[in-house]
Amino acid sequence: MEEQRLYEKWFDDENCFKVAISKQLDINIEILKKLFQDAGDIVQKEFYLRRIQGSVRIYVVYVDGLVDRTVIEDGILKPLLYEWRLTDGKDLMESILHRETHTVDIKKEKSFDKTLLGILKGDTAIFIQGYDQTLMVSTKKYPLRSISENDTEGGLRGPRDSFNESFRFSTALIRRRIRDPKLKVEQGTIGQRSRTDYGIMYIKDLADPALVENIKSKLNAYDIDGIFDSGMAEHLMEDNWHSIFPLFQATTRPDKVASGILEGRVAVVFDNSPEVVLAPCNFNMLLQASDDYYNRWAVGTFARIIRYLAAFLAITLPGFYIAVTVFHSEILPAKLLYAIASARSMVTFPIVVEMLLMEFLFELLREAGIRLPGPLGNTIGIVGGLIVGQSAVEAGIVSTIVVIVVALSAIASFAIPNEEFVSVYRLIKFFIIITSAFLGLYGFILGLLVVAIHLSELQSFGVPYMMPAVAGDKDKAWMKGDFVLRVPIKKMGKRPFWVNEKNQERLKGKNNESGK
């Protein structure tokens, strides 16, 4: 009960600390010890600084495991305790701030709430007797994995690095690619208890100010206990939350984020998340890959054609097979119809049942492969698919044609470069199967029509989701040069229409080949 009363006394409804920093060090120490009671990872230590007329007490607080102890010991404590000689009459805090400590990132802090937040982020707080402010020293050193090769959005050409869970590492990887002082990083925190750091990154003269403000307002529109991944924040920022299609582009590739920012889009980086989200987003962007722009334009165009065909086959092939074989078998050539009938001669289940059964088994193997460790997961996916498929055919549960159709649709889904988009295609595939099972080709076409109508209604921060297929005027129609057909870089002379009108042009050439 006493701890609850203290909490209600010290914190407001937004979990912010209301107590002011006291000039009496003993009061600050008492508050800190009660706040961090039973927190074994909080290091609190009192020191005495020697002066000509007596000593001065200071109190150092930090979280063990989140700090670089070398900086604390060599950059702060050693200069103060062993090398420091301060005569009376000089301001103690100013002397420590500007002369004595061997670190650059040190500042004063008046708020107790911000002091606590800094401590929990990995900073070191120094309380000084007689001062109602603290000195906050940046000593962060998080336990992180190193920047590794991208294993979720791979490519044959282009950089191999990817984001990790460090907020500052992620912003640095973007800053490394865009060395423009107009690149802004507006930081904040989200989550009452997690207080997760986030940063909104954009180029000031390219991004629409209304878009930036819209994203800020959506991030601050809800109070939530904690945000632990960018995916959770996406769900809070979406207007069309009922849609299964992603309205943000999530990526682990720094080059893709940098390219999006140069197109006037806004990137949102979250601490503890290796994925950065970009807005606005449309259908076409989710089917683009980074190496489309690194290869020759003809090669990139061919890859995109294959990708669009694969995306179409991934959702339509199983449903089309059911519609044709069950309801409209007369449109099949006689030899193919005989081959299908021969393959199904020993199968006891209807076509719809065996298709749903094989799709379910494949999804089960896919899910199991994700949860198991890497090498074992790959083995389960390959060996399990071969064994289950072959055994199911020999047992007369499914036909060989169904195994081929399911395998082709699965392979086609792997060609989609965005993992979140792949999950959407898996759901749509089952929807098309069900509509085709009830109405044949009419149900097949009706299912595709429902999906197309839904896509035509979606918008991502004011940008139609089906751009540039729905581009009407010439200012928007230029995006068709970066659609299925990727024109040469020399012809991509303008930025998207949502960029500031004064900065539409991004490529200038002496031979006037910028595509103006």
Outline of this structure?
The chain has 17 helices and twelve strands. The chain is α+β, with helices and mostly antiparallel strands. Mean pLDDT is 83; it is low at 512-516.
Structural notes for this entry:
The protein has 516 residues and is an alpha+beta fold. The protein has 3 domains: 2-137, no CATH class; 167-281, no CATH class; 297-463, no CATH class. Helix content is 45%, strand content 13%. It contains 17 helices and 12 strands. The protein has helices at residues 2-10, 25-35, 69-83, 92-100, 112-121, 167-177, 209-219, 230-237, 254-262, 297-327, 334-343, 351-371, 374-394, 400-414, 419-439, 441-457, 474-477, and strands spanning 42-51, 54-63, 106-109, 124-128, 134-137, 183-190, 196-203, 249-251, 266-270, 276-279, 459-460, 463-464. The chain has a 5-stranded antiparallel beta sheet, sandwiched between helices. Strands 6-7-9-10-8 form a 5-stranded antiparallel beta sheet, with helices on both faces. The longest helix has 31 residues, at 297-327. The chain starts with a helix and ends in a 39-residue tail after the last helix. The model is unreliable at 512-516 (pLDDT under 50).
